[in-house]
Design a protein that fits this description.
There is one protein chain. The protein has 352 residues and is α+β, with helices and mostly antiparallel strands. It has one domain (49-350). Helix content is 22%, strand content 31%. It is built from 5 helices and 14 strands. Strands 1, 2, 3, 4, 5, 6, 7 and 8 form an 8-stranded mixed sheet that branches. A 4-stranded antiparallel sheet has the order 10-9-11-14. The relative contact order is 0.14.
């Protein structure tokens, strides 16, 4: 019994001892180094993921912006089945409260009209300088909608604008309240009561431009960019609603837009040369524009302090098609960006 007790309560062997303070400190230090490495790897991967995600968003924003503009450009010069040179604007249309001056930007029988940006002043009075991105172009698009509108609806529509079309012959842009005064040659009675030739459609007018901010609600003014708003450039548009111009956001991140116009000089429905808006206006060639070349410079919404873009970009535009050079401002050099170029046919002008 005494031997058993002696074995049970014997002192531990001298080599069976705990961890020393020095060993513990070394282990903690090594652990912290490994943990710091893991954290750094995690942070780097997260940052790389954020930049990649921002690049993907950038590409999607560019596609969406191009799709929106392309849709309206492909509708340009659709005039209820009437030839484009047989469309007129009624003289009785009420002046728009917020029109773009006498530029033909909003109410026009020509399907497309552009405006060159040449400085810090907006080329259109309906877009204030506070909203306007320096040197960016604007493009106005006009067309009749694809769906017929009954006579009874048009006659009670007040100042809303419509297109009265006679298939293959002529079309008139007018206010609904003037339906009763439509010319006699545009009534069913003139064609032995054939209703298939005559129809009403909504009149559509859209003006695309680049705005200085993504939101106008943070500053002192809710209808224009000011110092209280953000500085994210945004593709926006004015849409004619009734006799008012309503501003709509399209997509943020569009930093610059430049446009050139393909002009058909020999009636073969193909562009013979590309001019800027000023040259097309001087030559009165807007009815002969059959395609558009569009440059969109789109930037990411992710600020990257480890990246600097101090380069220059050549966009479509400029006199004689020489192109417009855009230099990234110092304040915006820590954003990733890409230049996208598109060529879009005005299909209603290229049909035989």
């Amino acid at each position: 019994m005494s031997a058993l007790l002696h074995h049970r309560y014997a002192k531990p062997h001298r080599q069976q001892r705990g961890v020393t303070l020095i060993e513990l400190m070394v282990a903690i230090t090594v652990g912290l180094i490994l943990l710091a490495g893991i954290i750094q790897l995690f942070v780097s991967n997260k940052k790389a993921y954020q930049i990649q995600e921002a690049t993907n968003v950038l590409n999607e924003n560019a596609r969406y912006a191009a799709d929106q503009i392309e849709y309206h450009l492909r509708m340009a010069d659709h005039w209820a089945g009437a030839p484009t040179d047989q469309v007129t604007v009624s003289s009785g249309i009420t002046t728009l409260p917020a029109d773009c001056g006498s530029t033909g930007a909003v109410i026009s029988a020509v399907g497309i009209k552009g405006f060159d940006g040449t400085g810090s002043s907006s080329p259109l009075t309906c877009i204030p300088n506070g909203d306007y991105v320096n040197k960016s172009d604007m493009i106005a698009i006009h067309y009749s909608g694809p769906l017929r509108v009954p006579d009874a609806t048009v006659s009670t529509a007040g100042v809303n604008l419509f297109v009265r079309g006679v298939t293959g012959r002529t079309a008139l842009i007018f206010e609904g309240q003037d339906f009763a005064t439509i010319p006699a040659n545009m009534t069913v009675a003139q064609d032995s009561g054939n209703p298939d030739l005559y129809a009403n459609y909504t009149y559509n007018s859209v003006v695309y431009f680049v705005r200085k901010c993504a939101s106008q609600d943070r500053g002192a003014s809710a209808t224009a960019c000011d110092t209280g708003d953000d500085t994210t450039p945004t593709l926006a548009r004015l849409v004619l609603t009734g006799n008012q111009l309503v501003q709509e956001d399209v997509i943020p991140g569009v930093e610059q837009m430049q446009v050139t116009y393909g002009v058909d000089l020999n009636a073969d429905r193909a562009a013979d040369r590309y001019d800027n808006a000023a040259a097309v206006t001087t030559a009165n060639n807007w009815p002969n524009v059959v395609s558009v070349r569009l440059s969109l410079l789109v930037r990411s919404d992710e600020y990257d302090p480890n990246f600097t873009d101090a380069g220059t970009y050549r966009l479509y535009g400029g006199a004689s098609g020489a192109g417009e050079i855009y230099t990234v401002p110092t304040a915006d050099q820590h954003y990733h960006r890409r230049l996208f170029n598109f060529t879009i046919q005005i299909r209603n002008m290229t049909r035989g």
